[in-house]
Fold these 2 entries.
Entry 1:
Amino acid sequence: MDDSTTPWRPQPGPRHASPDRPPGGTSRRWFLAGGAAVVLAAGGGVGADFLLTKRPSDQPPPAPPDALLAAAETERALIADLDATTGGAPAVRQVISQARANHAAHLSALRGLLADYRTPSPTPSTSPTPPVRGTPRTAAQLRTAEQRASATAAQRASALEGTMAALFASIAACEATHAALLA
Amino acid sequence: MTAPTPLDTAWQAALAAEHQAVFGYSLLGPRLNASDRPRAVACSDAHEALRDATQAAIARTGLVPVPPEADYPALYPVADATAARRLAVRLEDDCASAWRYLYLRAASTNAARARSQRAVAQQGLDASAVRAAQWRQLISPTQATTPFPGA
């Protein structure tokens, strides 16, 4: 029977930005991973100025929150290990493929936020991040790594504010799904 | 009487999503194949427990918890087992969105209970994201996950 009229919200592939709506509520602004309406937290990552404030153009950008830098590093390491893991049963390969895409989406979102902070390099646009060498993992090891990453992202979220905190909360949930599917 | 805060509204919305999930699983359960029913029962039990806990927590603050709706016409029809699985995904996605929204509101205020609400919201978001992924894996194994659950 055709069930095409059944309400359904497919969620294929990574998304870098999306509207943020309460159930039945009105639309709100959400972060745009590459660009303009990015939330700016103070250097420590907390404070009341996270609500869509724009930094005056004559002021230097603040240093990025440590949590943001660490989260990007975590995502790079996870991606490297997933890339290095070439074996596994077909069912595991399916999860690895999705996890790889999701972590890339996380990293893209985090880089979008980092773009509004001061970078350590004087010429960041010409100094790409060096590749991380990954290690082949078993499915059980990947599961443990995803569980650990989820817990860490949730912990980082709890120390952040506003939309950046919510982004980290979603990343934590995503990594929890990877761990569950690798079980 | 003071107007509800955005945090209160988000909390009630999370409860409303859990009400809908409990109703929705009772609606879809009979349409599932037998092999899916234990999963649906476990999901339904989890939502009932979270609904009850959320209801009680809201009442303890002096607020009146939102009641369930008499019916949820938007969840119909559930024509067959495939539609039932898809409805399960939708219910979980709606709950994930509601808990994530509560997380956002709690992370945007200095209200006294915001800290504990973040923890509750993270748990609700994680749980529904995992259940949604597990249902999606039965429908489309190569598209079981999403990078930003609840967003």
Note: Residues 1-19, 24-53 of chain A have pLDDT under 50 and may be disordered.
Entry 2:
Amino acid sequence: MALKLRHCAALLCAALSLQSCATTQVISDARHQFYEGNPNAAIEILNSESVSSRDELLLLLDKGLIAHTAGNYRESSLAFLRASSLLEQLNIVSVSQQSKSLVSNDWASTYKGELSELLWLHSFQMINFLMLGEPEGAAVEARQAIKLYNEYNDVLKFDHFTRALIALSLESVGDYDGAFIEYKKLFDDSNESPAVASIALTLAKRLGRENDANRFQKALATHYSNDTPTGQTGELVLFAQTGAIQPKEAGNLFISDDMFASFPIYPDYFTPNVHVDVTANNATIEPVAINVQLVDVSRRALADRGKRIAAKQVLRLAAKKALVDIAGKEGEAWGALMGALMVASEQADTRSWETLPAHFSMIRIRLPEGINDVRVQIHDANQTHDIVLHNVSIQARQRTYRSFRLGAGTPTAESPIQPAAAVKDAVVDEPA
Amino acid sequence: MILLNTRYSGLLKIAIIGVSLLTVGCAATTRSIDPNESTVHYDASYDFSDKKEIVNKLTDSLMNTTLMGRESAKPIIVIYGIANETAEHINTGGISDDIRLKLIQAGEYRFVNRKQRDNTLAEADFQYAGFVPPEQRIIEGRQLGANYILAGTLRSIEKKQPKQWRLNRRKLVYYSMNLELTNIQTGEISWADNVEIARESSQPIIGW
């Protein structure tokens, strides 16, 4: 019996030694460089070393986001494509990993991402392809994101930004019917947001959807003045990421003196959503801004798999208790050793995509054809982020995109982002 | 020492055989396959054998069209590409390039190269900018005018098995590729055809 027990202890120690309860050092170092404002240095770190297969998804997600922030949209797109491909392969329950995590913790399992993170992979891809002037690629990503919304709408419907991005991507390839369906869903999910109504109204009129147009017009009436520029106009679309998402933390539930369960949580701190002001050519204009506070969606995504986490915790506690009991029968020392191992191994899996911003904003500004000066101020709980764009060239009936990271993770002057060319895509309808 | 060797030699042999088998099992291999014969599908998604099937069917259909009998000269076609309306990143340029290649090789149609239009204009501008002797310059205004536009759409519908207790995830994917030839002068769709491919894949939910 003692031999069996030694085997059990050895197995447990081996399981613990095979994994470490921290994100791979390479990823931590790259994140540190990213938040120091050095995206290119962060990419170099991620390219130079491999990580445990358990953290490979995190590496690819971070790499995609950091390359995007550095203005390298092609590299970002390739990293995210690899992440998508990896996710297909991870769509399987590994018996070996589940067994290991049953006597230790979930750090022993491969990180498969929260639902919200899987959605934002597509969000970044849509922006990447739009910035690269490849709207068809953006539309492919949009269709993949729609599948996620269809399957997990209760969780993801709170992300209005991505839904708006899906509609924009479909619009950019001329799929106006598809875009209109998404705008309608967004309008309903956003409690009839005037910002959404203002975008959807033009499309509703184009498609001859009079009833919907009337609904949008009604939502608009009290909020927006009809002050769109006269003459030929185009559209400037800004994608802004501000701040840094809150990381997951460990929540502990004590069952007895020597048993507790540790599980991941997103702390419920209240932070207001962002507010956007826009000045164009020295005149204040009513911005069409659609924002999302990412932690709100992440928290819901984590809660959605709460039942599975809880069920696994119960099994894990039962397995650990059984091992401690067996050890206790062999002697007090064995029992104490096993108990200590169990307590040491009980750690919440707090891995997450930590380079994500706190907020995503899509700001759509209709501007007159020609050269424009634009100033956008994004106010969050702590500060105001200023985007000043001089000499923005707008062509009639064309859309121009720009993407920015503001606040935490903004590239420093020593590590400037590559200049992102203003990319034009499909013809834009004039407001009716 | 000899005793030890005798005792452990059997175990040692088993270990060597085991390691050898494992090594052989894990060895990386590469083999060439004939793209004309292979119809291997690792999953339900679009792959090169689908491309071949689409290209062959649509090219055959286009070459057998009565359009040929109506034209006194070989029709001139400009390709406006195939829109990808699926949820996969599929390079549809490969389909239109292969269709064009087959039609050119068959000698029934002529093509203008739309992708190279900017480059041909730039080259012509260069020649007329004073760098090229007049007798070696191309003569402007001699480009071919297309009679037809060839364009199409690739669509897909994916259906997943509903969530239930099961050991495999099954997925059904349906692809539909439409191609059409539009008469530029009249706007008439002179020819159209499509290819449909439906495939089911199954992936285990539990693995080692």
Note: The first strand of chain B starts at residue 76 and ends at 85.
